[in-house]
Amino acid sequence: MNSRKKKIAILGSTGSIGTQALDVIAAYPEIFAVEVLTAQRNADLLIEQARQFKPNAVVIADDTHYEKVKSVLMPLDIKVFAGENALASVVQMETIDLVLTALVGYSGLTPTIKAIEAGKDIALANKETLVVAGELITRLAREKEVNIYPVDSEHSAIFQCVVGEFHNPIEKIILTASGGPFRGKKKIDLMQVTKDQALKHPNWTMGAKVTIDSATLMNKGLEVIEARWLFGLKPEQVDVVVHPQSIIHSLVQFEDGSIKAQLGLPDMRLPIQFAMSYPQRLKSNFPRFDFANYPALTFEKPDMETFRNLALAFEALGRGGNMPCVLNAANEVAVQEFLQDRIGFLQMSDIVEQCLSKMNYIASPVLEDYVNTDKETRIKAKELIR
Fold this sequence. Notes:
Blueprint: E1 6-11, H1 16-27, E2 32-39, H2 43-53, E3 57-60, H3 66-73, E4 79-82, H4 84-90, E5 98-101, H5 109-117, E6 121-124, H6 127-143, E7 148-150, H7 153-162, E8 170-177, H8 187-190, H9 195-198, H10 208-216, H11 218-230, E9 238-242, E10 248-254, E11 259-263, H12 269-277, H13 308-319, H14 323-339, H15 347-358, H16 367-385
């Protein structure tokens, strides 16, 4: 790697991915520098991070916290901006080399588009961006000759398996799923599931939204759609297998029948670091995997009858157009309502399914269509709940 530090903007620096990305940057101060940090509303942690990493600029999206952040950071010669529009502007700063998008949900779409338009390479942790507008994003990245490096552990695994194989066509990819906290349960068992139970993931430590998505298998459904766009595959080339130990992060099958897999302990810092340092692999002190501790690695088919969200995601991907956008918006509303104890666990799939059947289908959406579909689906989902 050249002697100049790689300057990184982290969108969503106070969340699970953002804080772990800063751990990686702190471990390699000679390689990485923080250029921009952004947070939705966690002003205290944003201030603490800015004091430690001394970025050029910070953005607090919730502008009610602007004065508080500004009063602390302006004297430290750190620029402070507020509001959603500032997020979309700050990613275009000339000094940024790589934008890590770790925002939750649909909110990542516009800043990612603006960063690509400005020619910035993307480390993508915000899977919803490709779910909502995969065709638009990948086309724009090709036009601007921008690289999109996956941060999701499964897509990082696929990427690591295809490095050096770019001339060999992929027959299919197999995404692994832990199965979440309710693996093996049937619908009747899930009728009384509580929020606290759903938030206890067996293997990974993640934010609330993605943890609930893992419990419903929607997370895997979103990853299927993301993978289709990231790796230029047809929907039928993406498979899912449940692998409870979360050691094999995903697999690639080539046309000769050979399968490559990427293994490692469940630690998000590894895929974050790989996305930020590619094509280099940096020496890390992360815990190492020991086969003796895992005498059996097991695999099973996902239960799409009980966990309908995965089937609904395949359905939305098969229909294409704006249907994945509908799927995502309906799910974001459903998860939010579940986290606020307004609906039950199984109702989340009901809401997604009804939105997919009721919303207008647009075969070849443009950006405005995605924006409108997202807005209208959220209204419809809330109507269905009330």
